[in-house]
Amino acid sequence: MSKASSATRDVNEAQVRALLDLNPDDPTPAWALEAGPSRRAASKVPQPAEVVRMLLAMADRAALTPTIRAEMESTTGESEARRLHASSTKKANADWEAQKKKLGAERVLCKTATETKNNKAKASRDD
């Protein structure tokens, strides 16, 4: 192996170890060191625990980038506005349900067409 390819391999291994958050005495997984397509490399599937650890490390690193951090901070106010809108909509729906129940009860008590007409007029005034 040439000196340049050895240096490149060392750099790649260091980056993989940093990405996987490995301790200095932990071995680098063999699947992470294989380069290029081959049958041997294709048969080395990482263990689920290693995949989870790798994804968590990637998410941690991505969250630290300025672009992602700015995007997360910009949506904080939007999330708060959505939460407030949802709570006010829920309150309005609850009020309407109570009013609808009351109107239905009053409508049942109407015995004549005139009472029904007056009840409808009262309901439209209340809106």
Tell me about this structure.
This protein has 127 residues and is mainly alpha-helical. The chain has a domain at 1-64. The chain is 78% helix and 0% strand. The chain has six helices and no strands. The protein starts with a helix and ends with a helix. 0% of the residues are buried.
Low-confidence stretches: none
Number of strands: 0
Q: List the total number of helices.
A: 6
Strand coverage percent: under 5%
Please specify the SSE layout and strand pairing.
Blueprint: H1 3-19, H2 30-33, H3 39-42, H4 48-63, H5 66-109, H6 113-126
Give a short summary of the structure.
This protein has 127 residues and is mostly helical. It has helices spanning 3-19, 30-33, 39-42, 48-63, 66-109, 113-126.
Features:
127 residues, mainly alpha, 6 helices
